[in-house]
Amino acid sequence: MLTVTERFLKYVSINTESDPNSDTIPSSSCQKKLAEIIKKELIELNLSNVSLDEFGYVYATLPGNSNNSKYTIGFIAHMDTSPDLSGFNVNPKFVENYDGSEIELNPNVFLKPSEFPSLKNYIGETLITTDGTTLLGADDKAGIAEIITAISYLVEHPEIERPTIKIAFTPDEEIGRGANKFDVPFFNADFAYTIDGGEIGELEYENFNAAGCKILVDGLNVHPGSAKNTMINAIEIGLEFHSLLPEFQKPQYTENDEGFFHLVDFSGSVEDASLSYIIRDHNINKFEDKKKLIETSAKFINDKYGRKIISFEIIDQYKNMKEKILPFMHIIDTAKDVMDELSIPVQIKAIRGGTDGARLSYMGLPCPNIFTGGHNFHGRYEYIPVSSMEKAVEVIIGISKKYA
User: Fold this and answer.
1) Which residue in 17, 41, 146, 173 is the catalytic one?
2) Which terminus of the chain is more exposed, N or C, with fewer CB under 10 A?
């Protein structure tokens, strides 16, 4: 049986970067390569109902062996990695018996405790890092490795009572589409856990309400020598629009349950420009207020210039799963009990982001989130302690035992 580390290294060697500019499902064909490998592994484990559908979703069932279980449970992870940084040619580095000092990823990039204090929590442990040129892919290939390793253990130990367990691996979570084609009736679980969180101990059932916003600016370009009272510079209008949004509601100034407007792309010319935002807030009323501010800011500029210069589109992406989890708090209590028994300090907190589980909860599958053990997702400073992955495997096994 492969260890969780061996599985993880195998999966991160396969590029699965999702593409937000693609209209296909999955958004990148490389994701199906990993899906095929996972399907083959699940068949080799003799799981039931192993399938890979046309959209790149992998499903499988480990039948229960307990006469007392009243639930069918599920575990879910996503196969894609973030397009924020390349996931091609990932070259993981091992740091054994970490001593608390700076880690040289390459001669130009260092992982520093002064910048990432969480490193100090893992002195004496083995860390897996990047080589400073790509992301690592712990988000969420660590989750995949942990689920399959746990399932392998349960297969190898039929004496352990368990409920029926459903597992699924999804594409395109990183671009907000991971639940688009998820077949909840086919999955057929009473509830599930996404294994997609960060550091060890995280247990999350609250997340942002989320929307994406596209602003289009229609300028008027004339020769600058005769531009007086005529030219409307779309770039400058874009900057003016951005200035109307609260400075203190930007990601770099917010924490905990504070929401934000995040400008993720700005491009254009004098003639036209576009701005792309993500809008986030845990509180639904504050979330709606933020969307309203986009509308009133656009109206202000259009009224100011006496014509429609600004147009916009806001698309809701996912909602806070909390209200869908609260009626089923035994899901959280069970996971917490397992972590307590494993001496894992539990960190129940709201996700400053979202997971497939948020949308799945609104599709009828209550689905909180559990840690993978990774840190600094989506960038070259990503790392994961081996011991945290091993503990995640134990948590999955422990939850399975509880629901037997």
Assistant:
1) 173
2) N
Q: Considering the candidates 17, 19, 80, 382, report the single residue annotated as catalytic.
A: 80
The Cα 165–Cα 49 span in angstroms is 12
Q: What is the structure's pLDDT at 1? A: 75
**Mean pLDDT taken over the chain:** 96
The dihedral built from the CA positions of residue 287, 368, 379 and 122, taken in this order, carries a sign that is: positive
d(CA 143, CA 392): 8
Residues belonging to the chain: 404
- In whole angstroms, what separates CA 60 from the centre of its chain? 22
Q: Is 19 a catalytic residue?
A: no
Q: What is the pLDDT of residue 10?
A: 98
Q: Name the one residue in this structure whose structure tokens are 């845990």.
A: 282
Which residues are within 8 A (CB) of 375 and not within 5 positions of it... i.e. 6 or more apart?
A: 116, 118, 198, 199, 382, 383, 384
How do strand 209-218 and strand 310-318 relate by DSSP bridges? Answer: antiparallel
Q: What is the structure's pLDDT at 354?
A: 78
Known active-site residue 80: yes
Backbone angles phi, psi at 272, to 5 degrees: -155, 160
How crowded is residue 336: how many other Cβ atoms within 10 Å of its Cβ? 15
CA atoms within 13 A on the CB side of 345: 2
Record the pTM: 0.88
